[in-house]
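Proteins fold reproducibly. Take a tokenised chain:

. . .
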Amino acid sequence: MIDYVWLIPLFPLIGFLINGLFGSRFKENHIGTIASAAIGLSFIVSVTIFFQVLQLPASERSISRIIYTWIQTGDFQVNIGFLIDPLSLVMLLVVTGVGFLIHVYSIGYMHGDRSFARYFAYLNLFTFSMLLLVLADNFLLLFVGWEGVGLCSYLLIGFWFENNDYADAGRKAFVVNRIGDFGFLLGMFLIFQHFGSLNFNAVFSQAPEVLTTGLATAICLLLFLGATGKSAQIPLYVWLPDAMAGPTPVSALIHAATMVTAGVYMVARCHVLFLSSPFVLNLVAIIGICTAFLAATIALVSNDIKKVLAYSTISQLGYMFLACGVGAFGAAIFHVSTHAYFKALLFLSAGSVMHALGNETDMTKMGGLRKKLPITYRFFLIGALALAGVPLFSGFFSKDEILWKAASSPFGGFWLWFAGAAVAGLTAFYTFRLIFMIFHGRSRVSKEVATHIHESPKIMTVPLGILAVLAIVGGYIGIPHIFNKFEHFLEPVFTRYVHGEILESTHDLPSLELGFMGISILIAFLGIGIAYIFYVARPNLADEVAGKARGVYLFFCSKWYVDEVYDTIIVRPIKLISDLVLWRWLDIKVIDGFVNQIAHVIGKGSDILRRVETGVIQNYALSIVFGAVVLIGYFLLRQ
């Protein structure tokens, strides 16, 4: 089956073509079935290949399959080639498995939308692009998938483009990602210039001989700039909260299974290059933990159910980059997979709440929904427990692995662990603030909406149930020192070109790790307990604290004024330069002026020439005589 790996991206591409070209002629259930079946078939092929690779010795679990030669010029060659190894297999299972559940859920959520076929066509194209990205065996093919997910995010975030705010959100995502993509492209040019190839195996095998510290730093900085755009890190994170403009299942797909994980995957795939630049590794860790903290503080005060989850995603991505920055690439991918389970569960559960409340997203207009939406409540609670890092749920194992690596890795240190633990406390607080404001306390739902509250249909709740199971058990495959099969499975990828010891902890003591784990557990329960006091036991306390710390509260509510700063120092100056220099001077005076001047000269010349054509025979006769005299005179002078 390995030779048929090309079927994995082919199925969603076919689904995109069928629904994109002919979907308007189909019924809703046919459209949804085609789109979901396409991803389901990709998942089946992925699982089959996974078990086939699992039968191979660890040293033979990297297989490249070339479909055909794409570019051939001189010694330079780029193939449409797919790389099958433990890293790509994990991503394939996450993308197709979680993506399939999101597709099925969407059938119920998008019921009645007049652009039903267009939605599922975009969703299939999105999945195709992500699968192309994770399967690519070279930078150029990866970049094609990279740009594909960027395009699809634009199409899906602005799906309801009749609303100007939603269209603006799509454009913002597109423009911000172009900045990061430009950095990625420059990094790819540098790689080609110095390695003469864009193939992963060729580049990574030559890296120790070719790379100097300066070159490695330049390449990794540019690649990481691309990662900050796709995976929403400082300074390019600002697009992701606005991406909530799209349908809620789109948010789940972007945040859990596809686009935002692309940057983490790329850094992990290029770990050989990043390990050659300790400076960039430190920068990755610092950017990651700073982003995690910034996003968590904004989530503390946001009242929009989807934006709380959006900032939570940004914060959790920060954890993943923290792991990459301390050399714990396996822990980062472990958190990618567990986060996909519980964040998809949370977003789809939020969609179920919105479905019941007529698309209401303001949590101040909710409350007391636990009894009216019992199924959604249970699933939402499971996702919240996993996100908060409560023991025995999937998020606990992966988050704690990252915190331990941050403390014990040669690239880490105590302060990185301390900051990560503090963010974990904030995460537990805002996660259960979400639970308590939506499902507990008195109902703040309007009387008109309250009469129509209903539980979601099975086509929406069944995917929630499967994700809930994964959110509970998905972390047990990574229990440290006991059953850590996950990182063991990934180990050949991260030790193939680099000696394994560089990725190991300097003091890998189980007792010390258990001590750190115990502290993080206490922090998680402390965050949940404080949230309970603020929003259940003493519901007025939150307003009292906000009033006493009004400056800090407004600072967080204003999202650290980052958008305002960007608007002041980047957007407005660019608009001013565009208006005064590029438009009024360059476009109007230079370009238009040059073209208009040519037209003016031609017009004047034509005005002069037209006077020769008088229509009077005597004038023409005189001209002929005058010409004859000139010619005769010319020949006489030559004699």
Remarks:
- The two ends are 95 Å apart (CA to CA).
- Residues 562-610 form the longest helix (49 residues).
